[in-house]
């Protein structure tokens, strides 16, 4: 497995430049993972399959789903791609490398866990600030247009918020100076995580049922369901920041009421 991966990597670094891999390669991987993981939830919602696991009874109209997709394509090509192209020197400056040998799995996993923790911390505070009156009205309300989220709404946001999300995602790698392989893997798991958090379904196999302190779809769906001043649940990945700072009280109270009713 490791040998196969190394020879595939050798092929990439022999045939493509660092710039092509870091910018165009990252963009292609991001688009593929994002749309391949997000689109099935649109199909599920339209077909009404697995509806017993759907968190909210309301469905999005095909027009609303279509608007989300067209806006996403516009922003991905008009904002994400140019940002990736111009930030290449920053990636190089932060010590990104693509040479062989690939880093050990221990290093890769250790760094990715660290990236998740730091991203969650930065996202939590940034997200709380986005819920102040002016910023919510002028920036963050775009992301909250969908009170019943579906996978693809995870990246549906104002361009200014897209830049903030990019910053929160890249700050961990900037601190450690990662291998491009680690950076790609981090991007893949982070996209899968945020698509899952917005998917609108709470399955028995959802990661929140297995990973302690993990937020996931049920936790973030609550954030979209409520008015911006009352929502709470601001974290992106974990639940402990909201618990420490008391911004999950509404969610916990509701859970306690539901439990008492059953
Ligand atoms: Zn929000
Ligand atoms: Zn959201």
Helices, by number, come to: 11
Average pLDDT metric: 95
> Into which percentage range does the β-strand content fall?
under 5%
Note the main sheet: none
- Low-confidence segments, given as residue ranges, are none
Total number of distinct structural domains: 1
Question: What ligands does this structure carry?
Answer: zinc ion
Q: What form results from the Cα inertia axes?
A: globular
> How many β-strand runs?
0
Q: Alpha-carbon distance between the termini?
A: 48 Å
Helix fraction bin: 55-70%
| Assembly level | single chain
Radius of gyration: 19 Å
- Based on secondary structure, the structural category is mainly alpha
- In N-to-C order, the SSE pattern is HHHHHHHHHHH
Describe the structure.
The protein has 262 residues and is mainly alpha-helical. The protein has one domain. Helices cover 65% and strands 0% of the residues. Helix 2 packs antiparallel against helix 3. The mean pLDDT is 95. One zinc ion binds next to loops.
Descriptors:
262 residues, mainly alpha, 11 helices, transmembrane, 0% strand
